[in-house]
Specification:
This protein is mostly beta strands and 227 residues long. The protein has one helix and 19 strands. It has a five-stranded antiparallel β-sheet with strand order 1-2-5-8-7, with no helix packed on it. Strands 3, 4, 6, 9 and 10 form a five-stranded mixed β-sheet that branches. A five-stranded antiparallel β-sheet has the order 11-12-14-17-16, with no helix packed on it.
């Protein structure tokens, strides 16, 4: 057992542990996990704690002993953690006070854990997909004076991607920057138009079909609009 912080109450209440670990969690999951801190009154007199104080809205104390803990008895504090945050480490403190002193905590508990990044959460800023190629969008719209537009993308696969174009209007060009997109790397699809070659009709709509991506033809289309 571990003694609490300094002070008379710290000499009479002991916790089995001041830090407990949550199960492994994954980014994007909205799940709740609970840990149970057990405390024992090692004195000859009843001891009572105030309501524990969680320092983050993601952490709630779902149970604590509201009545004095009898001499020699063991009780518990149950802390619930709501996993809905980004990937990283978790270290959420919960402060324990005596009912007779709310200025200095007699213990500081820690809820520890890890939220792991997943493939989907890593590329959530690129919601569109063409097989292993993730994109910000599958549309590109040129305003009245635009000549260059970029679509952020990433290769989520295990082999490099070199994109070419199967179907492209004569007034447009498309390249990627860089030309080869390495596995796990981000890039830009760069679309340029030559306004001197544009038909007079507005708005102008066309389709760009990419090659070099292992997926169905209908999934490899980028919609082009020129206003």
């Amino acid at each position: 057992m571990l003694m609490l912080a300094v002070g008379m109450q710290a000499q009479t209440l002991r916790f089995d542990s001041l830090a407990l670990h949550l199960p492994l969690m994954y980014e994007g999951d909205s799940v709740a996990h609970s840990v149970i801190f057990r405390l024992t009154n090692t004195s000859a007199e009843p001891q009572q704690i105030a309501a524990p104080v969680a320092t983050c809205g993601c952490t709630q104390v779902s149970y604590y002993p509201r009545r004095p803990i009898a001499a020699g008895q063991t009780d518990s504090i149950v802390v619930q953690f709501q996993s809905d945050r980004n990937a990283g480490t978790v270290d959420e403190p919960v402060l324990i006070y005596s009912v007779t002193d709310d200025a200095q905590p007699i213990a500081k508990l820690h809820v520890l854990g890890t939220i792991q990044e997943t493939a989907d959460s890593k590329w959530r800023h690129l919601p569109a997909s063409m097989g292993p190629l993730r994109l910000k969008r599958k549309t590109v719209t040129f305003g009245a004076s635009d000549v260059v537009m970029r679509i952020p993308c990433a290769n989520t696969g295990a082999v490099p991607l070199c994109l070419t174009v199967t179907l492209l209007p004569p007034y447009a060009t498309l390249v990627t920057d860089p030309a080869t997109i390495a596995p796990g790397a981000e890039a830009d699809i760069v679309v340029r138009i030559d306004r001197q070659r544009l038909p007079a009709l507005r708005p102008l709509k066309a389709a760009i079909v990419l090659d070099g991506v292992p997926c169905d033809l209908r999934d490899r289309r980028i919609s082009l609009t020129i206003e």
